């Protein structure tokens, strides 16, 4: 995305900024959801200690890895569905 | 309270989440503990009967030799025990990805079974059960879980 911003018209700049803002919002949402669900699933709420222990550490590792893979697969499927819809629409 | 830096996270990863490091540390500490116990208990052994009047230096040297051999054998036993228990508990906890009392029980069973392997099947079963019960009690007592 290395476009020289000065050369675009005001309209295109507006579109680019709004697209970037939306993307940023989506990413922040994804991060928050990932952290929230892995926290709920993996961390024992008794809080006997302030540090993550070995079991919780590996649980969080696995949780984030699976979440990320799920995001990739679902994104692919959505992209394919979108493309198919666009093809049909033509 | 602040977020841990990258350095702190890597250090934490090496010291606390690395099973090899934990095993080596427990082995060393077990060895030191065993040596200390050997020197302590060496004083209670009855001395070999020698000439009647041994000087102070001679008695001390006899005591030193005897307790050294004893502390070496204790140190080996405790080092093996510590390494086995800590290594197996770390691996089991990483595999299960949970933190509860069963990790100690399984690690104790494994350690007891290996340490008692010269006793045949019944010896290993007894060792497993005993060590598992002991480690569960110790963890409850130390209020880790």
UniProtKB/TrEMBL annotation, chain A:
GO molecular function term, any single one: metal ion binding
Principal localisation: mitochondrion
Gene3D superfamilies the record matches: Mitochondrial import inner membrane translocase subunit tim13 like domains
Single GO cellular component term: mitochondrial inner membrane
InterPro entries on file: Tim10-like, Tim10-like_dom_sf
Sorted UniProt keywords: Chaperone, Disulfide bond, Membrane, Metal-binding, Mitochondrion, Mitochondrion inner membrane, Protein transport, Translocation, Transport, Zinc
Topology in the lipid bilayer: Peripheral membrane protein
Domain Tim10-like residues, every copy: 19-78
Gene Ontology BP, a term: protein transport
Compartment(s) of residence: Mitochondrion inner membrane
Assembly behavior: Heterohexamer.
Domain notes: The twin CX3C motif contains 4 conserved Cys residues that form 2 disulfide bonds in the mitochondrial intermembrane space.
Family: Belongs to the small Tim family.
General function of this protein: Mitochondrial intermembrane chaperone that participates in the import and insertion of some multi-pass transmembrane proteins into the mitochondrial inner membrane. Also required for the transfer of beta-barrel precursors from the TOM complex to the sorting and assembly machinery (SAM complex) of the outer membrane. Acts as a chaperone-like protein that protects the hydrophobic precursors from aggregation and guide them through the mitochondrial intermembrane space.
Protein name: Mitochondrial import inner membrane translocase subunit
Source organism: Micromonas commoda (strain RCC299 / NOUM17 / CCMP2709) (Picoplanktonic green alga)
TrEMBL record, chain B:
GO molecular function (one): protein transmembrane transporter activity
Organism (species): Micromonas commoda (strain RCC299 / NOUM17 / CCMP2709) (Picoplanktonic green alga)
Gene Ontology cellular component list: TIM22 mitochondrial import inner membrane insertion complex
Localization annotation: Mitochondrion inner membrane
InterPro entries: TIM22
Keyword tags: Membrane, Mitochondrion, Mitochondrion inner membrane, Transmembrane, Transmembrane helix
Highest classification ranks of the organism: Eukaryota, Viridiplantae, Chlorophyta, Mamiellophyceae, Mamiellales
TM ranges: 20-44
UniProt family annotation: Belongs to the Tim17/Tim22/Tim23 family.
Name of this chain's protein: Mitochondrial protein translocase family
Biological process terms in GO annotation: protein insertion into mitochondrial inner membrane
Leader sequence residues: none
Membrane topology: Multi-pass membrane protein
Keyword 4Fe-4S set for record: no
């Amino acid at each position: 995305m290395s476009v020289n911003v000065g050369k675009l018209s005001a309209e295109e700049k507006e579109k680019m900024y709004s697209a970037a803002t939306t993307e940023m919002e989506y990413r922040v949402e994804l991060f928050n959801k990932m952290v929230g669900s892995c926290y709920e699933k993996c961390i024992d709420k008794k809080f006997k200690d302030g540090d993550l222990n070995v079991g919780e550490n590996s649980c969080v590792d696995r949780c984030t890895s699976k979440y990320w893979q799920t995001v990739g697969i679902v994104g692919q499927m959505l992209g394919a569905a979108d493309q198919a819809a666009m093809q049909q629409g033509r | 309270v602040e977020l841990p830096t990258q350095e702190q996270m890597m250090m934490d990863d090496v010291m606390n989440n690395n099973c090899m490091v934990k095993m080596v540390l427990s082995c060393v500490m077990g060895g030191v503990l065993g040596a200390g116990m050997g020197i302590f208990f060496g004083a209670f052994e009855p001395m070999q009967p020698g000439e009647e009047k041994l000087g102070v230096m001679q008695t001390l040297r006899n005591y030193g030799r005897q307790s050294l051999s004893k502390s070496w054998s204790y140190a080996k036993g405790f080092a093996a025990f510590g390494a086995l228990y800590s290594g197996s508990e770390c691996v089991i906890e990483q595999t299960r990805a949970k933190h509860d009392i069963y990790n100690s029980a399984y690690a104790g069973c494994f350690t007891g079974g290996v340490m008692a392997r010269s006793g045949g099947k019944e010896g290993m079963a007894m060792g497993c059960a005993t060590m598992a019960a002991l480690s569960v009690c110790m963890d409850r007592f130390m209020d880790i879980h």
